[in-house]
Amino acid sequence: MKLELNCVSKQYSQDFWALKDFSLQLKPGVLGLLGENGAGKSTLMRIISTITSATTGTILWNGVDIFQNPDAIRENLGYLPQDFGVYPHLNAVEFLEYMAAIKGVHRKEAKTRIEELLHVVNLYDVRKRAIGGYSGGMRQRIGIAQALLNDPKILIVDEPTVGLDPVERVRFRNLLSDLSGDRIVIFSTHIVSDVEATAESIAILSKGHLLHHSSPDELLETVQGKVWEWNVSSSEVQELRKKWMISSTVRSGGGVLLRIVSDESPSNDAQLVSPGMEDAYLHCISSHGKVRQ
Ligand SMILES: Nc1ncnc2c1ncn2[C@@H]1O[C@H](COP(=O)(O)OP(=O)(O)OP(=O)(O)O)[C@@H](O)[C@H]1O
């Protein structure tokens, strides 16, 4: 099972490329697609889902060109878009039956599958309640259930954790991780901690360019020996921001504990500390700061 993206680009206007020469090979497991707002994540996901066409490049699903032959990927695809809308008056079972009909899943098969999926996403007990009364996290879980109706080999979820409270976020990313198995799961987010725990590989996208693709450990390795903590007084912080890349500030005692990503020690008083994923992401984005369309 292999999804190969070769130099995929999307041009929206004469001088604006939302995606430029994006190349990646994907195998089963969770890919965390990390990038700020406007980085091009949704554009990429819509292209893979064959909803939007690419301007140039190719995507091969098990060797078959999906732009020439979109059905090859569509029948293997589950997609949860960012702006997933539900029918508030339907209950979970009615909604999933409706979605199964649209996807052409046979009625009898759909019944068993829906029952099974309601357990997987932990909504079985509330299956008869109107979806309009569900919390944000419950809605995202019904969204995942609809994306899984055809037991897809590729599951694409676009910023599913936006608006979820911390408990629901953890529950949702654990669910994605459980679902990966022999599937390719592509999970986009701008929240670093979302991908840290669940993704087998992380792709960092910025201004339409793929900046980095590796395992989480390899990404962390890029900032090994470059993360420092330094206690300063709060009046110094603003000035230090101009000079150093500060990944976090924490009030401590009368001062502020800065976390700085830098090749060199910012001060004799600074201490080298273990890097975190947030530091690595920041380092990656800023060291490619000159990337432009
Ligand atoms: N249909 C469109 N026409 C013109 N520009 C578009 C269109 N869709 C997206 N864009 C622009 O392309 C860029 C990438 O958008 P995209 O939605 O792919 O980013 P994203 O990483 O998913 O961001 P977000 O997290 O905000 O959804 C943005 O600057 C966006 O404004």
CATH architecture of the largest domain: 3-Layer(aba) Sandwich
Most strands sheet: 6 strands, mixed
Distance between the termini: 32 Å
CATH superfamily of the largest domain: P-loop containing nucleotide triphosphate hydrolases
Arithmetic mean of pLDDT? 91
CATH fold annotation of the largest domain: Rossmann fold
Instruction: Give the C-alpha Rg.
Output: 21 Å
Q: Which structural class do you get from the secondary structure elements?
A: alpha/beta
* Secondary-structure element order, N to C: EEEHEEHEHHHEHEHEEHEHEEEH
Number of domains: 2
Q: What portion of residues belong to β-strands?
A: 25-35%
What level of helicity do the residues show?
Answer: 25-40%
Total strands: the figure is 14
- Placed side by side, the strands forming the largest sheet appear as 6-7-8-3-9-10
User: What low-confidence regions span 5 or more consecutive residues with pLDDT below 50?
Assistant: none
State the name of the first-level CATH class of the largest domain. Alpha Beta
Shape: globular
Describe it:
The protein is of the alpha/beta class. The chain folds into two domains: 3-220, 3-Layer(aba) Sandwich (Rossmann fold); 225-274. The chain is 32% helix and 29% strand. It has helices at residues 41-48, 71-74, 92-102, 107-120, 136-147, 166-180, 192-198, 216-221, 237-243, 277-287; strands spanning 3-13, 16-26, 29-34, 56-61, 64-65, 77-80, 154-158, 184-189, 201-206, 209-214, 227-232, 245-252, 255-261, 271-272. The strands form three sheets. Strands 6-7-8-3-9-10 form a six-stranded mixed sheet, with helices on both faces. Strands 2-1-4-5 form a four-stranded antiparallel sheet, covered by helices on one side. Strands 12-13-11-14 form a four-stranded antiparallel sheet, with helices on both faces. The structure holds adenosine-5'-triphosphate (ATP).
